[in-house]
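User: Can you help me understand a structure? I only have the sequence.
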Amino acid sequence: MRTVARLLLIAFIASGRATGLQFLPPGHEPPRLPADVYRAAWIGVEWAMEPHDPAELRGLAADLSDRRIRFAYLYVSYLRPDGTFNPTFDHARTLTDTLRALAPDITLLAWIGVPIQGSDPDGFEINRLEDTTIRGSIAKFAAFSVSELGFDGVHLNAELAANGDTRTARYAARHARVDAGRRAALYDGACTTAHGTGDVHPLPGGGAPLVGRLLA
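Assistant: Let's start by predicting it. Here is the structure, written out as C-alpha cells:
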C-alpha cells in the first residue's frame, strides 16, 4: 500500500530531526519535506478519555496545522485480556468532529493497541490473533471507531512484534479490514510501533501534549 510505504519511510528518516520540530515555537515555519513524505503526530489517550473545553480543542487543531501534520494518531483503546476494549474513548467523537471542522486536511486514525501475546489455561504462550473471537472483536471495534467515533481509519499497534515481523502486520490487516458505510483505511504499522512511543511531551506555549514524537 503506497500510503503505508510513505509512513514507514517517515519512521526511518525522521528520528534525527524529530526533537527539533517537537519544540518548534508556535508559528515558526517547519522545515520543508519531499512532496511524497508526510508528517505525523501521536496524540495521548487523555484527548479521547477526558473532556476538553472548546479552547483546548481549538489549540490542538492549531498546533497540528501549524506543524503541517498530515496524519494524527489518537490513542483510543487497547485489547484487554478478556477480549474487550478498555473504555477510554468517551470524548473521542468531540475531538474528531472538532479536528475535522478546523483541520480538514489531517487524516485522523484511531490508534488501537492489540497485545498479541497471551497464555492458554496450561500457561503456554499463544498468539491471540489466531483466535477467531479475538479477531472478531478487533474488527468490530475498528468498525466502531470509524462509524461511531468519527475516525478516517484505524492504526493497529500489535504488541509486541519483533523487528521485521511483517507476518504479524499482514495477519492483523487481513482479519481486521473495515467497511463501515464508507470505506475506512487500515494502517497496519505493527512493526514500527511496537517500541519507544510512551513518553509524553508538552508542546511549547501550553500546547497539546503529544505522545511519542512529532516527525519532521
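Now, to help you interpret it: The first strand starts at residue 39 and ends at 43. Residues 9 and 37 are 7 Å apart (CA to CA). Let me know which part you'd like to focus on.
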